[in-house]
Amino acid sequence: MPKGEVLLVSGSFRRGSHNAALLRAAANALPGGVTHEWLTGIAALPLYSEDDDGERPPLAVEELRRAIAAAEAVLIATPEYNGSVPGGLKNAIDWASRPFPANALRDKPVAVIGASTGIFGAIWAQAELRKSLRTAGARVVDADLAVGGAHDAFLPSGELRDPGLATGLRDLVAVLVAAAFEPLLTDGH
Ligand SMILES: Cc1cc2nc3c(=O)[nH]c(=O)nc-3n(C[C@H](O)[C@H](O)[C@H](O)COP(=O)(O)O)c2cc1C
């Protein structure tokens, strides 16, 4: 297994976020030799404007693009706000999608998971996020995980309480790692 880094992105900036908890559980499922970093600074991004997206974009934007470019793979956990992707996360995807088509997300293996306190586990937000990521050129892996009832979904150890979800998370992490490190074994898009 070659060394590499998975960038963890939480669509929630809330202290005590269930989506951040989901990413911590995912990080524990990474195989040896694969490290992880947390994307910070999404909340510091300005609202996207093409006027600001020239030769010298804002520093927070450069850092966002650098962090994505440096990672072998990206794992995003998103909440659902009013049936869709939280605005802050969508704003980050919009910044990361430019310049098009040679953006930091292009051909980047990305997996999307999500947690919500409702029963569906942010499935609408996840679907819309995958659509945006594919439009930006990312290689979104064919795997998903929806954690509903997120306020009761984690054990004190940080693991998912539901064994089926815990297995699903491990399987999804394995699919993402395979897409990043064994691209010849996957079927591309
Ligand atoms: C503005 C707002 C809108 C929300 N809309 C939805 C929704 O459409 N569907 C849903 O399942 N939960 C919705 N929720 C509840 C979130 O699932 C819940 O707050 C969740 O814990 C957010 O994720 P986090 O714990 O990672 O911050 C909403 C919460 C907020 C604050």
Hey, roughly how much beta strand do the residues contain?
Answer: 15-25%
Radius of gyration equals 16 Å
Supply the CATH architecture: 3-Layer(aba) Sandwich
Largest sheet: 6 strands, parallel
CATH superfamily: Flavodoxin domain
Helical residues, percent: 25-40%
Unique ligands = flavin mononucleotide
Q: Stretches where pLDDT falls below 50 for ≥5 residues?
A: none
What is the general shape? Answer: globular
Q: What is the chain-wise order of helices and strands? A: EHEHEHEHEEH
- The CATH class is identified as Alpha Beta
- Per the CATH scheme, the topology name is Rossmann fold
Structural class: alpha/beta
Mean pLDDT: 95
Our count of helices gives 5
Report the span from N to C terminus: 22 Å
Q: Report the strand count.
A: 6
Quick recap:
With 189 residues, this protein is an alpha/beta fold. It has helices at residues 18-28, 59-70, 87-96, 123-136, 163-181, and strands spanning 4-10, 34-38, 73-78, 109-115, 139-140, 146-147.
Task: Describe this protein's structure.
The chain is an alpha/beta fold and 189 residues long. It has a single domain (4-185), classed as Rossmann fold. It contains 5 helices and 6 strands, in the order E-H-E-H-E-H-E-H-E-E-H. The chain has helices at residues 18-28, 59-70, 87-96, 123-136, 163-181, and strands at residues 4-10, 34-38, 73-78, 109-115, 139-140, 146-147. Helix 3 runs parallel beside helix 4 (123-136). Flavin mononucleotide binds at residues 12, 14, 17-19, 79-83, 115-118, 120, 122, 150. Flavin mononucleotide binds next to helix 1. This is NAD(P)H-dependent oxidoreductase. Residues 6-151 form the NADPH-dependent FMN reductase-like domain.
